[in-house]
Amino acid sequence: MIVDRQGRRFRNLRISLTSACNYACTYCVPNGKRLVAAQDELSAEAMARGVAYLIEAAGIERLRITGGEPLVSPKLEAFMTAVGQMGLADISLTTNGQLLARKLPLLVNAGIRRINVSLDTLDPVAFRNIARGGDLPTVLDGMDQARAAGMKVKVNMVPLRGQNLDQVMPLLDYCLERGYELRFIELMRMGHLASDSNAFLQQFVSLQQLLSLIGDRYEYLQADAPVDATAVRYEIPGQGFFGVIANESVPFCRTCSRLRLSSTGWLHGCLSSSNRHYVGDLLDKPRHEALPALQRLLVKALGDKQEVAFSGGATIMKIIGG
């Protein structure tokens, strides 16, 4: 077991199945161009082998499949079939929901029971302005179908001053009515926002600002959450829950248990570090050769974690998964 001096270890793996995405959200891609799959992305078999090796080398217990947009990847079915047989405590998926209804039978058959849908507004015009792709009714229909299929649905919203702040309450009401748990995500100093502090500050909405908006309509209580949770969770008695991933306001670095594997074979121990560690070449090696080398890289990746708070990173989030 690899543990640092703060007692942190890797329990949760987030794997970016592809860097390709059918959206180009303003807070992720500054130039409006959709990201395409890299030429050197790992195969489904190699990625699955990477998960298996990381389970053994790091003690990974939970897996989240991300992107880019994982549902656009032709590797999705083969990868999920493989990891579904590895005995993980939990496998979940984050999607923008555009292809959710179409891919739902595949997800259900693969044993996915939890999904997070990235949705920043219920206004169709604002939706197109932020996502720069897709359409809102298709996403909402996919969420309804997922709920009807027995999936637990969470919604991820990034509140942005000047773009969708007026949608905080409509989206919260919508989620409470349907039994979805809404997660507000504070804007992160990632990619182009890491070097443009003015753009970041002009759009940033804090935990306290969100709670002030919500408190004008609802009474809420802070709810329990796992010790390594990223979200501060709240209950609106009799109606449901919401949470805030308050990366800036309430940093969670001290308890972070997340490890990320990119679609091109790079391990990222911390979003706030430019360090990355290539493991793609290890995934073609037999277990007895791969594991010792992988463990050495994991020690370095764990050492990349911030001790107190996130300080920003130049990496584009879509490349390494949310």
TrEMBL record:
GO terms for biological process: Mo-molybdopterin cofactor biosynthetic process. Its EC number is 4.1.99.22. SUPFAM superfamilies: Radical SAM enzymes. The keyword Iron-sulfur applies. Pfam families: Mob_synth_C (PF06463), Radical_SAM (PF04055). GO terms for molecular function: 4 iron, 4 sulfur cluster binding; cyclic pyranopterin monophosphate synthase activity; GTP 3',8'-cyclase activity; GTP binding; metal ion binding. Residues 5-217 form the Radical SAM core domain. It is an enzyme of class 4 (lyase). Its cofactor is [4Fe-4S] cluster. Keywords: 4Fe-4S, GTP-binding, Iron, Iron-sulfur, Lyase, Metal-binding, Molybdenum cofactor biosynthesis, Nucleotide-binding, S-adenosyl-L-methionine. InterPro entries: Aldolase_TIM, Elp3/MiaA/NifB-like_rSAM, MoaA-like, MoaA_twitch, MoCo_biosynth_MoaA/MoaC, rSAM, rSAM_sf. This is GTP 3',8-cyclase. It comes from Pseudomonas fluorescens. The lineage of its organism: Bacteria, Pseudomonadati, Pseudomonadota, Gammaproteobacteria, Pseudomonadales. The gene is moaA_2.
